[in-house]
Structures are given as C-alpha cells and as structure tokens.
Design brief:
22% helix; YEATS domain-containing protein; alpha+beta; 4-stranded antiparallel β-sheet; YEATS; nucleus; 5-stranded antiparallel β-sheet; 6 helices; NET_dom; YEATS_dom; Immunoglobulin-like; 288 residues; single chain
Amino acid sequence: MAPRKNVPRAARRSSGAVAGEGGLVSPQSEDHDTTTDGISVNLSPAAVRSVNKPNSHKQPKIKMIVERKIKIVTEQHNIDKPPIQEGFPMKEWTVEIYILDQEGKERPARCFTKAVYNLHPSFAQPVQTFTEPPFRCRNEGWGEFEMAIDLYTTEKGGKQTIIHDLNFAAPQYENIHTVTFKNPSQALQAILRETGPLPSDEERKLKKADGGKKKKAYDIEKMADALVKLGEDDLLQVIQMIHDNKDDNTYIQNNIDAGEFSVDLYTLPDPLLKMLWDFVVKAGVVAA
C-alpha cells in the first residue's frame, strides 16, 4: 500500500484485535414478497417457470434504476493499551452505515441485508460481517488503511462495494457515497420509498389523478386483488398477455430462481389494463 503524506508506510498497516461485536455470519436467506398492495402483483411460481423457460438465458432488461445516498460515519480515539508499533498509539475505531432521505437525514439502511467489511489482512479476523443496521464494525489497532465494504440486498447480484478510507486525522468524520439499485423487487421498492420516491411514482400519481377525474373502465386496486385469486392456467394467460402487450414504460421483473413474476400495474398501458380487467371479470374473481 502506498504511504500517506507524512505517515510512514508502516503506519498504513493495522495490527488489530478481533471486532468488539459480531463476527462472521452466514448469509441470510432471501425473502420473496408474495403480497399485493393494490399497486403491484406477484404471480404464482408455476406460471413464471412455464412462461420464461424458453428465454431463461436472456439477461433481464433494466427497467428501473433507483439512486440513494449512504453515509459512512467513522469515530476513533486513543485507548490505554501498550503500542504495538513504537510511536503509534493504540486506537479503538468504529464504522457505521446509514442511508439518507430526501432531507439528508440519517435513516437505518434497511435496504441492505448485510455489510461485509474487508479489513487489512493483519487483523486476526480480516473479513467481518454484520446483518443489522447500522452495521457497526468496531476494532482496535494502530494504523490507517483502506477497506472495501460490500453491501448486499436480497436481489440477485445485488452487491455494492464501497472503498472506505480509515484514518485518524479527526476523532469523527463522515463520507457520502451514491449507490444504485437496478430493477428492485417490490419488497425492496417499499423499503426504498421510505427515503424518497421511485422513478415510477410520478406516473402512478398521474394515473391515480386521472382516475379521479373520469370514471375508468377498470379498477386497478380491485384488479390487483383479483389477479392473485386466479388459477394457474389463467395466470399463464395473464402473464402472456402482459408480455405481448406491454410497452417501454412497463415495469416487470422475472425472478426465475425464486419462481416469481412481479408487475407494477400502474406502469401498464391503458389498453392492456382494460384487457386484463375484462379477463378477471370473465373469470369471476371480481365484480364489474
């Protein structure tokens, strides 16, 4: 590692103890939302596998990208322990991770299921995993170094890596980083909405407002409740109808591994919504 100005190369190494809390933790199992809130619907696993099997090798198209800012807070102070390296006092330091809302306020980073800190290899436990916000990592050592922090979501491939500079120039300091979420699941979208709107929210508001001005030939919230009541054969037809009639604004997500098909009804074009409404009415799962 390159030396920092006025700090010898040796000072960039940390010879620390095991973290004061936590340790290596096995990854949590992924949770898949199967509920409906009148906006989005997650259809049955069997239907997903049947429709997507021929094209399962294709990469999913990115329909939604959500950006959020996270804050990494570092605190450090001297501790009364014999120095390991002459001239460098022993330190205790902690690192915490928060997500910022629209007003810049700190909120628990519940969008991440775990944070993995990759510390300097001189630590007895150089890889440390934490699964509860604020993902506090506490250690002791005498040197500064750069660490990679891996932040995971439940999404497949949902890992964000942040490079964090641990230094002892100030007792406390903060760093802001921008992270992105591609095609978040409905469950993750709900969590992200706690800190700000999503790209599809404006269109949702417009459709709701438009629905209040004139009577529509369909009711999206009733449709959402009705779709999950359909049998497997009917669900297959619904999914095929969505695939055949969607437009560029349609947000769908096929999680083949989980056997889940998610669709945001408010992003469907009006002709397709009318088609789906007629289908659920004919199926007898909603009253016209």
